[in-house]
Amino acid sequence: MVLDIVRLLELTSWRAFDVADTGRVLAGSDESGSIQLVELADGDRTPLTALPGAVSGRYLPGEPAVIVQHDTDGDERSQLSLLRLDEPRTGPAQLRDLVPLVRDREHVHRLLDVLPGRIVYATNRRNDIDFDVVIRSVITGEEQVVYDRGGMVLSVAASPDSQYVALTIPAARSMSDQLILVNTMPMTEADHVLVLTDRDEPARHTNIGWLPDGSGLIVTSDLGRDHTGIARIDPRTRTRRWLVTSDEHDLTGWLAPDGSTLLVQANEDGASRLTLHDAATGAVRRVVRLPADGWCAYPLPAPVWSPDSRFAALSFSAPTIPGDALLVDASTGDCRALTDSAAQLDGQHPVEPSTHRVPTRDDERVPCFVYRPGEPDPQLAGSAVLLVHGGPESQSIRSFNPIVQALVTQGHTVLVPNVRGSTGYGKRWYSADDGRNRLAAVADLGDLHDWLPTIGLDPERAALWGGSYGGYMVLAGLAFQPRRWAAGVDIVGISSLVTFLENTAAYRRAHREREYGSLAADTAFLREASPLTRVAAIAAPLFVLHGANDPRVPLSEAEQIAAAVRANGLECELLVYDDEGHGLAKRVNRLDAYPRALAFLARHLAKRP
Questions:
Q1: CA distance 246 to 311
Q2: Helix runs in 211-270, H state only
Q3: Helix axes 402-410, 587-605, angle to 10 degrees
Q4: β-strands 542-547, 572-577: how paired?
Q5: pLDDT tens digits for 217-264?
Q6: What pTM, to 2 d.p., does this model score?
Q7: Where are the beta strands (DSSP E) in 279-431?
Q8: Domain ranges of the chain
Q9: Which CATH class is domain 354-605?
């Protein structure tokens, strides 16, 4: 059996969204072609939804019900509905079977937290830009706006008595969050919002958890540190005490609802290492053994605890495992797979990467995974494809990627780097491309190209592949390093930082200006760093994919670069999918697009006669 692109794209993967006290897991499965909700319990699988697009969800505590978050054709204007699990149904629920909770397709409504009988969500319906935080009764529909002071709300956690809501909003600097406390029952206006961290502090504050008595918050932070650790913050005094830290790896923590246990992930070069800790002292209790060297956090759904703190449900993927739902017993540390996605491979083994540090022109080292074909096609032997992640505040991790495996099966060697600006390697590295350092990350691509001969690859037959910000990197590589690259595949990428910021969804503009620079102050540099500005230098053929409903990177970014490349007499294929947004979420579209993209690369990277 050959792991060709069609077979790889047809593999079903699983993820875990929530877990009940009984160990029943609310999971997501893409068996139907898009992610739908499925309940896993005692070896049984019960499909819950059959909606047109991808969905996610959470159990409503104490009720046989699920809060369903869904959008339309990838437009990211998420809506919230209720699915009763105790009502008779002949099959998975369709949209007409759901009880509307928050429905207004002109705006975004993002589920943040679930409480007994209530949900906490963020919405931009007030002015299309700022996100307000709202607590809504599922029973009466009564709503309380608890925060409406502007900006994009990132993380939210309600205190056990619901009097306080801790939340993070973007701080002044890129990749920095400000932690604030909202009193839902203030005596005076001065009591309404308490600031726990300064706006100008260059630090992340994520994964907020309340201790059961409300005396403290547990957060993941890198305040005063290069790597993230887990700290306890006293909301009355603003003092913090570090519980678990590392000088080598970024750590992320998830607090159990009863406040007794911390599930901690160490990020070791894109692989998860899990441990259970005493939440009071930070001491290690148990090591959680995962099925392989893989990953179980963002961009997968985050680990989630059962209300009684007995179980933690994980989403897990590895280079040889498409995606499974795992269940951890906190009392023993035992980790059990509830699904077996690798069984679909029928004994075939996808390629696992080797790990490297690639030297740069300024004595840095770029982390990079290298996937090599076993028996490459003689015509493609020695060719290289660099696959660049999006973000830029993201990381290439040790997870299953059907595109990587298909490229390797085809005969290419695939390099998956974490260029500067990537997360997972500390604050210094993720800050190294901010603002006017943007092109330093692009220069990393050139250093990776110069490294190819040292591992036996042909620098004349190297291509770039990337999505979103990775798409920008593809276009920038072709425009700023035209002699290095033989072809490029751009998926929902930015072609002009200026027009991107002008045309992206209003609620995203201010958020993204912190990373790229502002239209008001940095237009000249943004134009200078835009591939469209240097499109005349592009000398390689280009393949472009985009969704018509993309609210992040508008379709116009793809249309304008394709028109400009074609005007220069170069080959440029543009595929637009009317029912997609920021990327291809539907299998039917991936099955159409990706084989064509792979054929494009095979044609341009084959050895010349």
A1: 26
A2: none
A3: 30
A4: parallel
A5: 999 999 999 999 999 999 989 999 999 999 999 999 999 999 999 999
A6: 0.93
A7: 284-288, 304-305, 311-318, 321-329, 335-337, 354-359, 365-371, 384-388, 413-417
A8: 354-605
A9: alpha beta
